[in-house]
Design a protein that fits this description.
With 172 residues, the protein is α/β, with parallel strands linked by helices. The protein has two domains: 33 residues, no CATH class; 129 residues, Glutaredoxin. Helices cover 50% and strands 16% of the residues. It contains seven helices and five strands; from the N terminus they run αααβαβαβαββα. Helix 5 links the parallel strand 2 and strand 3.
Length: 172
């Protein structure tokens, strides 16, 4: 069945996202057909500064995560967990960038880079009661996850709908 092969390939790519950086480099040397372009930490920050009008703040410490969760009592906070080595995460980050071009300014947007803030990433999953995924978008209100999506479910449209629903259901 053709769909079985597609599902198997998608599953392989999802597992690919969870590999260590060194394992990814080895795999890339054997799979040039993937055409993967890995985003570096600096590229992400540059993109956030240049194309998103400084609407995206990076969380690097547990204290910054706690501040973001506290901020969610005043306005929705969207956490975006990103892997620098995963092609699926690269695609999801591009969708996130597209959404941010016309983002609702009543929402705070936070980036967690899993390779450089692994403890923050794990703590966010634990505190919000969600299973760790990467890439992952988690919408937080009053310190609780009200919506989350991962991998191919992260699109500019799904982000827009979730944020619109959060703002409409709990006007700011």
């Amino acid at each position: 069945m053709p769909s079985e092969g597609v599902n198997k390939s998608a599953s392989s790519l999802v597992n690919f996202c969870d590999l260590s950086v060194s394992a990814v480099r080895v795999l890339e040397s054997f799979t040039p057909s993937l055409g993967t372009k890995r985003l570096t930490h600096d590229m992400i920050i540059t993109a956030s500064e240049n194309t998103m009008n400084k609407t995206l703040d990076e969380l690097r410490s547990l204290e910054e995560l706690d501040q973001a969760l506290s901020e969610s009592t005043k306005r929705p906070v969207l956490l975006f967990k990103h892997s620098l080595t995963c092609p699926i995460s690269t695609r999801a980050f591009q969708e996130f960038q597209t959404y941010l071009e016309a983002a609702d300014s009543r929402v705070a947007y936070k980036l967690i880079t899993v390779q450089t803030a692994r403890q923050v990433s794990g703590s966010a999953a634990d505190k919000l009661g969600v299973t760790h995924q990467s890439p992952q978008a988690i919408l937080v209100r009053n310190g609780e996850s009200v919506w989350s999506a991962s991998h191919f479910d992260i699109t500019s449209e799904s982000l827009g709908r979730a944020i619109s629903d959060a703002v409409i259901s709990d006007p700011l």
